[in-house]
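Tokens for chain A. Residues wanted.
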């Protein structure tokens, strides 16, 4: 069974490439040759569904004419002509979807532009039952629209052919109907970011044995949820997010058999400890246990997760990084902010030369070792809110070695003059650095002249230090500077310089 969107563009290309009259004819008649036109009964159902929606941004402007298979968001079976797909995801949700749910800074400029699409969505008081007439629907996506806190209608649970159901960020409320457990063909289920009532029982999940993707991230209204007796029996489950749903350690057993997981997000639940069988998760590439009340050393049971690329452990109370950590050769993103790790930056990170983002902020680190400059792939480095008093590698040597760094935050430490360094930065062809924060330290020196080499710098925060003397003329080269904080220093003549670009 195939799903077909519009084939007009594809045909136009064929015509251009092949320039053959017969092909042109086929294209002109593509609706008869390549698929059956939509069935009138199903077209009527879609018309009725459209009538139940408020579409102030004209998302459904293509929904006219006889062949509903050509309407935007509709996919038909190319043999029977039945509507098999209804994809009304908003452009905004679609735009951001491919990215991992990481920290905000991982967003690219393109993804920031997604926000501009936020005004395009559909609204309705409920999901109209005309959908039931689309008996052959396998793919239903209503994410991002607004259903005014109405419950998911019971009839969805009878749409037995569904393989893909996404109702996330769609303003649903009430209890989650437990007959969703009847959708035994589901491979993909997203109910994230809604306002379901906390007493919704989700034990029906155990009936969905074909699930590969389950996203319940912040599905509830408030976090006072008491999940009991949850089991998950989906041997092919790869993606699981139960973030911020009041999951507790007693529920963790539900995951004991889901060893095929690649993406596991349990952040903002009350776990307190990690069971030993966590070592069964050998395929994990993404693990988020931020804010789970974990403490002590990072558990040895993570050792088997050697494919891990994204590891989010912020806002726990971990106090050390074990030496076996270097086995995580693929690790690219490590977030450990708001923990309780003391002393020098752990040697376990020494050979992690693949690491691209490292957040060690809000711990109690006191020094940065000399090997640190070998982490040359770093793009994002946050060491702020620690107790750093010394750096065996100076800030300029970090910048000299890490040519791809975009953000360097060393603010809110106790560093002095010696840590600034005066290495020439010209070993990098160019510097990507956009954000530099050295604020609230004890830097008692002239402003470093190397600042002028950071030609992509957009934000520079030097406030609350003891910098003195004139502002170097090299600052004039910082053509992209948008935000500059210099307050509470002893700099001269700042007001005399004209900042054409500020
Ligand atoms: C229908 O689509 C499927 C999958 O794309 C394809 O394999 C099949 O050949 C198509 N059938 C027709 C009649 O076009
Ligand atoms: C398209 O199909 C119709 C009816 O099947 C036929 O009358 C018409 O000539 C066809 N057009 C072309 C360009 O082949
Ligand atoms: C479905 O939508 C149609 C068209 O707006 C409306 O007449 C009908 O009452 C709706 N049905 C329900 C159950 O809301
Ligand atoms: C659907 O779910 C309901 C409630 O969970 C249940 O009572 C009913 O028997 C199920 N129907 C089928 C066909 O499985
Ligand atoms: C959750 O439910 C269990 C069993 O009913 C009960 O013992 C426990 O106190 C409840 N916890 C909360 C936070 O309501
Ligand atoms: C959980 O299981 C226990 C024991 O089987 C049972 O008494 C209890 O009612 C169940 N709770 C829910 C919410 O299903
Ligand atoms: C895990 O699988 C085993 C073997 O199939 C089964 O006995 C056990 O009950 C399962 N555990 C959970 C929590 O589903
Ligand atoms: C890693 O996996 C092996 C093989 O399944 C297992 O014996 C071992 O206990 C696991 N290690 C940890 C630390 O969980
Ligand atoms: C890192 O690699 C160097 C050179 O291979 C080695 O001497 C050192 O022990 C390694 N450090 C760690 C923590 O594995």
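Reply:
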């Amino acid at each position: 069974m195939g799903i077909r969107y519009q084939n007009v563009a594809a045909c136009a290309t064929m015509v251009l490439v092949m320039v053959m009259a017969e092909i042109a004819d086929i294209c002109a008649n593509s609706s008869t040759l390549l698929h059956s036109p939509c069935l009138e009964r199903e077209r009527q159902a879609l018309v009725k569904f459209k009538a139940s929606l408020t579409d102030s941004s004209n998302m459904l402007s293509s929904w006219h004419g006889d062949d509903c298979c050509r309407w935007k968001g509709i996919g038909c079976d190319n043999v029977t002509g039945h509507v098999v797909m209804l994809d009304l995801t908003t452009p905004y949700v679609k735009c951001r979807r491919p990215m991992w749910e990481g920290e905000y800074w991982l967003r690219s400029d393109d993804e920031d532009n997604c926000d501009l699409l936020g005004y395009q969505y559909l609204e309705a008081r409920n999901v109209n039952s005309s959908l039931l007439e689309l008996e052959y629907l396998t793919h239903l996506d209503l994410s991002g629209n607004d259903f005014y806190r109405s419950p998911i209608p019971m009839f969805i649970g009878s749409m037995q052919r569904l393989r893909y159901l996404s109702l996330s960020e769609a303003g649903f409320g009430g209890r989650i109907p437990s007959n969703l457990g009847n959708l035994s063909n589901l491979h993909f289920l997203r109910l994230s970011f809604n306002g379901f009532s906390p007493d919704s029982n989700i034990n029906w999940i155990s009936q969905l044995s074909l699930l590969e993707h389950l996203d319940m991230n912040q599905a509830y209204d408030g976090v006072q949820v008491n999940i009991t007796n949850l089991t998950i029996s989906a041997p092919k489950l790869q993606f699981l997010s139960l973030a911020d749903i009041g999951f507790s350690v007693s529920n963790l057993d539900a995951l004991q058999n889901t060893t095929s997981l690649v993406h596991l997000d349990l952040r903002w639940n009350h776990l307190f400890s990690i069971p030993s069988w966590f070592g069964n998760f050998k395929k994990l590439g993404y693990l988020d246990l931020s804010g789970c009340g974990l403490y002590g050393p990072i558990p040895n049971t993570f050792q088997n997760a050697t494919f891990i690329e994204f590891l989010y452990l912020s806002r726990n109370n971990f106090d050390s990084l074990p030496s076996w950590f270097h086995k995580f050769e693929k690790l690219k993103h490590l977030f450990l902010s708001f923990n309780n790790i003391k002393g020098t930056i752990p040697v376990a990170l020494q050979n992690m030369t693949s690491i691209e983002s490292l957040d060690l902020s809000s711990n109690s680190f006191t020094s940065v070792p000399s090997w640190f400059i070998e982490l040359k792939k770093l793009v994002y480095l946050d060491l702020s809110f620690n107790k750093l008093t010394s750096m065996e590698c100076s800030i300029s040597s970090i910048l000299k070695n890490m040519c791809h760094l975009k953000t360097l935050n060393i603010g809110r430490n106790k560093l002095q003059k010696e840590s600034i360094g005066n290495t020439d930065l010209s070993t990098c062809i160019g510097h990507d650095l956009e954000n530099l924060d050295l604020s609230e330290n004890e830097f008692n020196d002239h402003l470093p002249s190397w600042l002028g080499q950071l030609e992509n710098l957009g934000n520079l925060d030097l406030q609350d230090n003891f910098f003195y003397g004139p502002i170097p003329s090299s600052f004039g080269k910082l053509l992209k500077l948008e935000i500059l904080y210099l307050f509470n220093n002893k700099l001269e003549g700042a007001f005399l310089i004209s900042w054409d670009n500020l």
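The helical segments are 8-18, 21-28, 30-33, 40-51, 91-96, 109-114, 395-401. Residues 406 and 433 are 4 Å apart (CA to CA).
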